[in-house]
Amino acid sequence: MTGTTRVRLPIPILVLAGTAIVFFALPLVGLLWRAPWSHAWSFLTADGALTALRLSLICSLWATGLSLVFGVPLAWLLAKVDFPGRGVVRALCTLSMVLPPVVGGVALFFALGRRGLVGQYLDRWFDLRLPFTTAGVVVAQTFVAMPFLVITVEAALRQIDPRFEDASRTLGASRWYTFRRVTLPSIRPALIAGAVLAWARALGEFGATITFAGNFPGRTQTMPLAVYLALETDPDEAIVLALLLIAVSFAVLVAMRDRWLGAGVRNRARSV
């Protein structure tokens, strides 16, 4: 039998928690209060706004997909394999979380630019140029978003009971089969949570994108860049575009959060 335990929190904790909630809600309330609702629809249906939103969604989904493809194996390596310098590798792979985004964009430019460490060979051998392209937007977003998935999945992998994986291998299953059929289902809530965090970070990326990919309408101008430019010329348009971006992000986060939290509760119930 399971239930929810009601806990009476001390008043100081309630006050501090309520203050934190107000702190996070106040900027949104300020935008809603200042929004020019009579002109909102014309701003939202403008070609520039729709193009920027579409580009933001496409690039952020690509960045999330790349984060899953490369980030999950990286998280497994950091969680399951003990090798010299693992702490240094973990710090390196999560460094972009604390770097100023503009610094990350500069680093990407000198690594993958036409004259960069690797970019010069991509240009010379494959005629591939990443800066100032849509692909460059995806690269910049992946660079800043993947660490959110890595640390979330790594934490979940460390909490898996190794007896289940050992039992699978004892029955003759290969490591790849065990990873697909035992490990991944066990961390599904964390996997979804990490993907949502990575997507949200990619959707809102600004600094690394504008530094590495530039700001070209229809090609690299994502919604955050459109909001920034509109703020300089038409603050009302900037407010409406910002609210649209917030609404999209908030709706997806709420929907996905319910799903992965629900999955987590079901998994814990089955283990009792």
Secondary-structure element order, as H and E? HHHHHHHHHHHHH
User: What is the domain total for the residues?
Assistant: 1
Which class best fits the helix and strand makeup? mainly alpha
- The overall average pLDDT, rounded, is 85
Secondary structure tally: strands: 0
Sheet having the most strands: none
CA-to-CA gap between the ends?
10 Å
The number of distinct helices, counting runs of at least 4 residues, comes to: 13
- CATH first level: which class? Mainly Alpha
* CATH topology-level fold name: MetI-like fold
The low-confidence parts are: 261-272
Helix content: over 70%
Q: Give the radius of gyration.
A: 22 Å
**Which geometry do the CA atoms define?**
globular
Percent of residues in β-strands = under 5%
What features would you describe in this structure?
The chain has helices spanning 11-34, 40-44, 47-80, 86-93, 101-112, 119-126, 134-159, 162-170, 175-186, 188-203, 207-212, 223-233, 235-271. By secondary structure, it is mostly helical. Helix 3 (47-80) crosses helix 12 and helix 10 (188-203) packs antiparallel against helix 13 (235-271).
What is the gist of this entry?
The chain is mainly α and 272 residues long.
Architecture blueprint of SSEs:
Elements: H1 11-34, H2 40-44, H3 47-80, H4 86-93, H5 101-112, H6 119-126, H7 134-159, H8 162-170, H9 175-186, H10 188-203, H11 207-212, H12 223-233, H13 235-271
Helix pairs in contact: 1-13, 3-7, 3-10, 3-12, 7-10, 8-9, 10-13, 12-13
